[in-house]
Amino acid sequence: MQKFSIFVTRHAKAIVSIWIVFFLIMGYFALQLPGKLQGDGFFVKDDHSRTMQELSETFDLPAKTIFVLFENKTNDEITVALEKLEQVETIKEIVSPIGISQLRKDNYAYAMLHFGNDVSDYFPVVDEIRDILAYDNHISITGEPAISKDINVASQKDLMQAEAIGLPIALIILLLAFGTVVASLLPIIIGAATVIVAFGVLTLFSGTFDLSIFILNIVPMLGLALSIDFALLFINRYREERHTKSIPQAVQIAIQTAGRSIVFSALCVMIGLGAMVVIEVEIFQNIALGGSVVVFLAIISGLTLLPATIVLLGDRLNKWRLIRVTQATSKWQAFAAFVMRKPVLIIVVAFALLGAAMIPVKDMDLTIPSKESLPSAYESRATFDKMEEAFDFGADAVVYLLAEREDGWDNEDGLTKILAIQQQLEQEALVKQVDSLFTATQIDSVEIWQAANADPNSQGLLLAAQSHFIQDDKMYMAVHLDTNGASTEAQDFVREWKNKDLDISFSLAGAPKFNQEIFDEIANKIGLALIIIMITTFIILMIAFRSILIPVKAIIMNVIGLASTFGLIVYIFQYGHFGIEAGTVVLIMPVIVFCLVFGLSMDYEVFLISRIQEEYLKGANNTKATVDGLVSTSKIITSAALIMIVITGAFAFTDVMPVKQIGVGIAIAIAIDATIIRLMLVPSLMKLFGDWNWWLPFTKRGK
Q: Is the pTM value of this prediction over 0.85?
């Protein structure tokens, strides 16, 4: 790092100039990112998606559907509205409620707008439909495309709202830490530059990867918090060195010490993010990509733009002092001395608190979010709720069975097989109705079918039904379940049927299959992701601190802290506390929070242990090194944690539920880590283990 630090201080002007040009270019692309984001990221390339595509292409089933809800409308008014919608070229078919009793109830009626596979971007389509129907407040729309569009809008609104809350508070914390306006503004400027450049880079990636709308919240949440934390650590170390060194020398030492900590911290975060790649669900791939991009840029900006700017600012970094900052060393010294005197007591108290927080985890109920992601103020959510109440919308689920047979289906053996599958399905307790070739024609035997097919009077009707359910060697049937698609029963049903031996090649699709694939992919891969995180984190920390015990303790403490976090999330969001309506926990929350926080919390581990190690290597014994490290880093760790909590916790005030839970989860995890774990458990355990903290096989124990 020495040569690199000299290079940065010697070429400060060039580095800042390059960053300004890069920022302007990427800023142009960053503005385009919201329009490039599609869907909520809950997508797995498995049977459901392939089967639904095949059903759409072969049997003309709709790829997507938008529902239009009419309140207190006459047939003439409904007809006028649907005629207006005919101008939307991408609509493949409009199903009107006129003459269909199932689409009417009391004062409500709804139409269905079906789309084919030729539509790649539904957001303009949703906007066009809403513009056409804007003349009447009693006509509204819902469905997956409309819900995704509203989540996109809410995400952009949430981002601005969270920044409006988080950044001013972060500035206040920085002022309390540094005392001057310039030093306090610099981390925020670095953080904003990092996030905007990351948005620009992701816009360029959007042509290659499908990016989810949650990228818009996760990337700034992570990028701002990390960049500001890194800058806080760096500036603090620079100001310490500036008392006795020149500006270039102080910057160089900060790069060599704080910069090293930044690199190791960021590597731990990137490991957590990268591990999510093994879970082949689009949202995890997106967050791994977006998070890795912004963390990498946070390293680059923290080691180039930040120190180069400090060199150019010089002592103007301390300009416009508002607060006289004191280190409060005596208070931290007293706290550290207490920890060293009572390590066992502190460990017992800490584990009691963490254990109590873990208890609710046993009740965690995980679900895949859909319309629940939005508050009822949004049209698509409010409309869905009305349809749910009036029509029992979503109360039951449909599973599609698509089968192939080399000899075709329009022969005696093929028809016999269709009837056998149908009857086997009808025997299932969960099955309410099966739509097949036989049920559509109300025929219950192959013999009757063949006789009716030989009759010219009924042959046309049978051929029409046959063409609907059979095309060449493919056949499908729709299975209606007496439960909703997100239920455990529905998922168990498709799991069981996926492994049925029907003597033919077949696949399943529908909401139960979609949910089952998401749950199973996470369940099957999460163990591998955790192993990758823990092993690689262990290796990095072992290399960084030349110790076995320190990484082992760090990993165990992180797992305990995160388990406590999940317990508190259940208490808040599932039990319903602090003004939150009781509900469920979003399926992705534990995975994302674990992978992100496992790395983020290592920031404080690295900050603290690096300083302890620095003192230890200078000749201090383990206890004194621990005290000195705790005293010198406690304030900066507290300030860094507060900023992280503020930036991520600000998303608690957002509208999109998955983002709200993730933001609150990260904030709680960081609060636990920076207080109970990092200031209580870590130094207590450092005291108890003594010189064994620094033991590494095949090396001499001790200094």
A: no
